[in-house]
Each structure stands twice: as structure tokens, then as C-alpha cells.
Amino acid sequence: MYDGKTNMRGDGMEKRVRIAKLMDIYGAELTRQQAEVLAAIYDEDCSLAEIAERMGISRQAAHDAQKRGAARLEALETLFGIEAGSRRDIEDLRAAREALVEGNTQGALERIDRMIARQEGEDGV
Q1: Where do the H-state alpha helices sit in the chain?
Q2: Taking the model in full, what pTM does it have?
Q3: Angle between helices 48-55 and 32-42 (to 10 degrees)
Q4: pLDDT at position 123, please?
Q5: Do residues 27 and 46 make contact, with C-beta atoms less than 8 angstroms apart?
Q6: How many Å separate Cα 35 from the centre of its chain?
């Protein structure tokens, strides 16, 4: 039964959003077929059968491209951590903003300094 939180294939909204973010960051590192299959599934909500017909491949080939592409995106995120770093930065920005609203300038500066240090560490500055 469809619950409104997952698509008909059972992919939850969190997974769909995560794959979309990872595609934006690492999509150029996928094969053309993996990128096309993932885009069709997660952007257009196509079924594997629809993708297979559109691309002239078997349903199994579409499924394999989906699994390998998603695994590659996760492996790249594990290696580089760009999406996780972005989430940390957003959390720190929100906390800094809240600290400023509360009049806690020192707390805001600490969060901002943490973000700067993280960026300098990543850039080797």
C-alpha cells in the first residue's frame, strides 16, 4: 500500500533527496548509463521497465546501473564527504544565527570560526 512517503518502488523521500544531492556533487563521476538511469528514477520517477524501453536496454541492465551508480555515489561521499561537510556548515550557520538572535556574539563567532577552520583544513590553507 502506498503511504505517500515513498514512491511506488519503496524509495523513501530521504533517499531520493540524498541521491539527488549526491548526483549534483558527484554525478560527473558516473558512467553515462548510470547517470541517465539515476536521473530517470530519481528526477522523473520512471520505472525500471520504462527506463529499459527508453534506453534500449534490459530491465536488469537498468537495475544494475541504478545499484552501481548509487553505490558509486555513496563511495565518493564516503571518500570526500562533501555533502556531509555541507550539512555541518548549515548546522553551524543556523546555530550562529540563533546565537546572534539571542545576543550571544561569542557563541556565533565560535561557530563561524569552526566553519572557517574546517574550510582551511580542507583547502590546505
Answers
A1: 13-26, 32-42, 48-55, 59-80, 82-101, 105-123
A2: 0.69
A3: 140
A4: 54
A5: no
A6: 14
